[in-house]
Write a structure and sequence with these properties.
By secondary structure, this protein is α/β, with parallel strands linked by helices. 36% of the residues lie in helices and 16% in strands. A six-stranded mixed beta sheet has the order 3-2-4-1-5-6, sandwiched between helices. It starts with a strand and ends in a 6-residue tail after the last strand.
Length: 200
């Protein structure tokens, strides 16, 4: 099985410097252009058999553009939404720092953001989606997964079998692409955070 893991295009929160998380911002015009270029690249080089996507607008719109270009069936999975950041969702970052400063030393992995979920709960949710993907999709298929930066990091931890307390984070740009292969004897990273489709 191959997983083509994709972050959504630029969203309105990205350009207004707001916390996103569960706040449901749409793509910008640039984000739509990024998604269109990505879709062309995917259709030419790495066409998926199936697309799984977060239902939040920025990911859903990116996924629909890919589906329209490739003809791959699209399924929305609630488990792929970004971390529930509770009271921070949608707030300007400066305002959030003033109203809800992080605790001294940072928030522990089992501690929830007020009104949201903990990093531990987030990992467990994404791990569940990853397991469903691995065990329910037929072998030798390529599945595109369209999600969010935090979700992709949690998928990466699940893919590598890292412990729940792992502090490994995976950088992913707007429409950044990762390609992972799952074989019976090993798991292979073939591509990491590629934005070649945005060049030229």
């Amino acid at each position: 099985m191959e997983l083509l893991v994709i972050r959504h295009g630029q969203s309105e929160a990205d350009v207004t410097n707001r916390h996103e998380g569960r706040a449901d911002f749409p793509l910008t015009e640039l984000g739509r252009e990024q998604a269109a270029r990505l879709a062309d690249w995917v259709a030419r080089t790495c066409t998926p058999d199936l697309i799984w996507s977060s239902p939040l607008q920025r990911a859903a719109e990116t996924a629909r553009i890919i589906a329209a270009r490739t003809g791959a069936p699209l399924v929305f999975k609630d488990g792929l939404v970004e971390m529930d950041n509770g009271v921070l969702a949608g707030l300007p970052r400066d305002e959030a720092r003033q109203k809800y400063p992080p605790p001294p030393g940072g928030r522990r992995y089992h501690e929830r953001i007020p009104g949201g979920e903990s990093e531990l709960e987030f990992r467990a949710r994404v791990e569940s989606v990853f397991a469903e993907l691995v065990y329910s999709v037929e072998p030798e298929r390529r599945v595109a997964v369209v999600a969010h930066g935090g979700t992709i990091t949690m998928l990466f931890r699940a893919f590598l079998g890292l412990p729940l307390t792992s502090d490994v984070w995976l950088g992913t740009a707007d429409t950044g692409v990762h390609l992972w292969r799952i074989l019976p004897e090993r798991r292979v990273v073939l591509l990491a955070n590629s934005t070649a489709h945005l060049q030229g």
